[in-house]
Amino acid sequence: MAKKKSNKSNSNTIALNKKARHEYSLHEKFEAGVELQGWEVKSIRAGKVNISDTYIHIKNGEAFLLGSQIQPLNSASTHVICDPMRYRKLLLNKREINRLIGATEREGYSLIATAMYWKKCWVKLEFYLAKGKKMHDKRADIKDRDWSRDKERLMKHNTR
What is the 3-state secondary structure (H, E, C) of 7-64? Predict the structure, then answer.
């Protein structure tokens, strides 16, 4: 028997924040679950998520995701009130939350979301401890990237 081909892509990535690597210097990576409502899961499966200006705020010993947009589907229930910009609680251990509190309050780090993806049947959020870059840091990164690209071109043409 032939196997059925699925129309779904094999990528587990839901949304990316590409701007974060340019705007911030990323230091330590964390992974957290996201507490979602039913309509939000349906919208995420449909790909209606934006995490471009998303960050994490810690309040009363709990971490919350701010600035993420999950647009409701047109076929959402009429009795459910859909707020696309609501605060979403992140599921972290107490030890991780204490580590994040220390880093943000004492060391001046920010918590920046970089990716949202599926892990088995759960939605996970990847975020980093980050510090904002100055303009000269961004220029240096662009210069390094251009030089590595030129170096690859030179090596490719020299081998012929």
Answer: CCCCCCEEEECCHHHHHEEEEEEEEEEECCCHHHHHHHHCCCEECCCCEEEEECCEEE
